[in-house]
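thought: fold this chain, then report.
action: predict
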Amino acid sequence: MKKILINDPTLRDGNHAVKHQLTAQQIAAYAAAADAAGVPIVEVGHGNGLGASSLQVGLSLTDDATMLKTARKNLKRSKLGIFIIPGFATINKDLRPALDLGADVVRVACHCTEADTTQRHISFARGQGKEVYGVLMMSHMASKETLLDESRKMESYGAEGVILMDSAGAALPADVAEKVGALVEKLGIPVGFHAHNNLGMAIINSVTAAQAGAVILDGTARGFGAGAGNTQLEVLVAVLKKMGYDTGIDFYKMLDAADLAEKSILPMIPTIKSTSIVSGLAGVFSGFAKHVERAAAEYKVDPRDIFFELGRRRAVAGQEDMIIEIAAKLAEKGKKN
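observation:
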């Protein structure tokens, strides 16, 4: 059977969905359940990764060290994964301490055209003997040629694989097949894919990535994640099994973990709301959803207009302050009209 490595960011991407308010108790419970299911990698942290807790992108209820210590205690078989974006996370303040706390897998992420920013972090983590991957976020914003060039940089820095993130949930299966296929054909390292469900494409896009040669796929329990959520992991495991792929995950225990997540972590199961669809069409980072909803309510403007303007400006993670600016301008324009 063809093997697929599953990375589970329920306790990281899912943090976006609760405004980064996951508790240590929730982290402990889900980590233990995912470990029992044999999930290979459990990714933990603030939605934007280590060091990202801030007024701009959202303050964490639980600090990075506590999250990692808690997860580490409850992961016996599963590897502990971390996610970092240079600019939010520094090597000495964030990455080195996380490795000292027992992180096994490091994902170093950047906007899809800025791989240069990941060199030091990737090289450092590899030098510490860790399993390291490069991540190209907002991959819908770059051509397959550009993504290949950026992936080659990450490969040269020491990345052991490259993951394309459809951070806005904007991709269609044809886009995924084209871009993943190009990387699989030209790179000497594995390729992965991380989907969001803003346009209802998360499962089919993940399956398409596998068919195009991706061997690493991301998914979260009940799709718990930013925007309309991620690929629903328990569904993905079932579909991959039916297609003849081997994830090494115990299906019943994965269902148990998803049930636990629904009862103890999720305030509500992610759904495709009107604003999620607009966000996907506009190609806007899924992590902006809560910020846009809050700004729209405060300034009494249509959140859909904010999303489309963010898309027009090609906004990316870290530019959350732009949301307030746009909301204020829309409100002022509304008064004049």
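thought: worth noting. Residues 177 and 208 are 6 Å apart (CA to CA).
final: tokens above.
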